[in-house]
Structures are given as C-alpha cells and as structure tokens.
C-alpha cells in the first residue's frame, strides 16, 4: 500500500506528544490501530459497511474511505448500506456526485458477510436498522455513547468528525488519495463542523490540510450550494413560524414532514436569531417524533439535555454542541384526522425541552 503522502509530520500533529492518541480512554498509537484493523480485514472475504439512519456527509465519506481501505486489504466483496432515507439535498447530491454505492439496509442480511462494520455510529438498534442483538466486528465513531462493543473499536468522542479518523488511517497506510475520496472526506469534515465553526479540533485542521491539495474545490462549492426541496423549505418555514423563545432558549415544531434532515437545518438556522444560544427543533415523521438540537453556549451540553428529556422514551443524546433523538409515538400516533392528539403531543415536547434546558441556565 503506497501512495503520495508528503511530510509525515502533518498528520501526526493531532496525536499526543508521545505519538499516541486517546482512543476510548486508552492511548493507542495510530499505527497499532491500523495494524489491528488490517488483521481483521485481511482475513475476511466479505464486508458489510453500515451507515446510520439518514446518513450525513461525515458518515457517507467515512463509509467510502473504509470501503477503499478494505478493498486495498484484499476484501473481495464489500457492500455499503444505510437505514432510513437520504433526504437532505446535500446528502443526496453527495451520493450522486461521488457515486457512493449505498443501498437500503432493508434488504441486507448480516449473516451473509464475514464482517460487519459501523461507521459514525456504534450500537446496534440505535440510530440504525440493525437488530439489537447483532454482533459488530468493526466500529469507528466519534459520537459520545455508552455500551459500544466490537472486536475492533476506535471510539474517539473528542474528535470532531469520523472522517478525520479515516484520514488518519489513510495517511498511516500510505494510501494514495484520489480526487473523489479526498473531496468526499473534506466535504464530510466541513459539514460535520459547520465549516470548521462547530466542535472542530486540531485533528480536523490537520486532516483538511492533508486533503486540500487533492480535493476538487469546484465540487465542494457545488455541494455547498445544493438546492432546498420544497418539502425542506416548508418544514423550516413551519419551525420559524412555530418558534417559542424563553430567554436564550428556543424550541420549535416543524409539524409533520417527510424530510428528517430539515430539522437540523432548521435548528442551525434558528440559532442565528438574535439573543438565542440554544435551539431544539422537532417534527412528526411517520410514527415518531424526531428532534434536532444545537447550542453555542459553552456551559450547556446539549447532548445531555436531550438525553435527559427524551431518552427514557426513545433514543436521544449527542455532543456538547449538537444532538438529536427519536421518540416513538406508539398508540398515540397522530394522524391528519386527530389534530387534538398532535397538539397535545406537541405541547408535551415543548414542555420537556424547556424544562430540561432550564436546568442548565
């Protein structure tokens, strides 16, 4: 595995002074980690790479990178799967532009593969469609979460993007980066950190420096300028109209929508409102409430806020600056014919969100 890597000091900068990096509370040299990953891949004939539900650019780029590493390691059959739908306009554009061969997990059978890998998530049954009892061989993730278990585990919650970890792997393996992969990884890092403005670490800057010479800036610009769909714009508009503000906290309902990715876009957009430093946006999608939250307040851990408010009834949590969740509605699923129930559920979500936020302000 050889390629064009340049000065080896560039990608070592995010590591500790002794050449190690904190991985799941253990200092493990990146070369040691890569060797352990190769040991698994080189003894495998087939690999299923599972993206989380409604995968974002960080997840998609990381899957593409692992696919590349696995192919170079000699894995003969590799498939990439995702749960949910790819509805965000930039995510759809990314799949099309880079021709990412991802398909719905609905038709997958994990037992058909020698190895099962998760990228950008870590627990079966949580933000993915994999049965909870499934054993996972490889997990590479940067999200703060408990109960992560795998034969190979690289869990770095202090890193700003999973794509950053994948760049470290590619660099350590001395693999040549083509324009397609470099551009996808750089876009994934930029989107996950909101243009290096959210949750960014030294590692993201080092990775971006490594990727920049190979990336296609015109493609990056095209992806950044991807157009809204009418459904996305309607959902953001509903969130704007339904916003409620208490001091620096804002909560908003986007109503019923088919595009889950409109929620984080609305949460980011509403964070620009003067005087607001934390936003929680929610909407009804099929038979669940989906939530997305953001904060600029360094004293607030929005992942813990959302987990405290909603995790007992569903799955919720996230980072210090960004979080999300899904709460099944069960027998109280609102429908177009039962607007009263939907109003009751909406008021309950507003109340829970503000009550949880009050503990941090």
From TrEMBL:
Any one GO molecular-function label of the UniProt entry: nucleic acid binding
Stated name of the protein: RecJ-like exonuclease
All residue ranges annotated as the DHHA1 domain in the record: 255-329
InterPro entries hit by this protein: DDH_dom (IPR001667), DHH_sf (IPR038763), DHHA1_dom (IPR003156), Oligoribo/pAp-PDE_c-di-AMP_PDE (IPR051319)
The entry's keywords: Exonuclease, Hydrolase, Nuclease
Domain DDH: 48-189
Matches recorded under Pfam families: DHH (PF01368), DHHA1 (PF02272)
